[in-house]
Prior knowledge:
The protein is built from three helices and five strands, in the order βαβαβαββ. It is of the alpha/beta class. Helix 1 links the parallel strand 1 (about 10-20) and strand 2 (about 40-50). The termini are far apart. About 25% of the residues are buried.
Amino acid sequence: MMNKEENPIVMGLLFMSSMKSQENVEQMISQIKVQCAKENILVEDVAVEHNRIGSMDMDRPVIKSVVNAVVSGDCEVLVVRNQYDVTEDDADWEKFVGDMLDMDVQVYLADAGGFAGSAYEE
């Protein structure tokens, strides 16, 4: 069994974009928080975009707000369900992950159960 020194607890921010009902979103958030806790990611802050029009443009205000929250907070991990909560464009996704890594923030993909950053590091 690992102890805290080997696998320290890190602070996380969960971002989710969804058109689902509030009840279903809350259930997904609870499940992701439990999953993250098993990975020693403590999710205290959650940002939910109720994306009724399905826009996945990287320049939408909520993405800018999430980045600002990461920059101004003590977030070490940004948790998303998958790339498509942020963008459907692969090049934009790679840049986003690279920008997060440049700020010493890892991106955890809940659906994949792992971190996105390693594939994009230089």
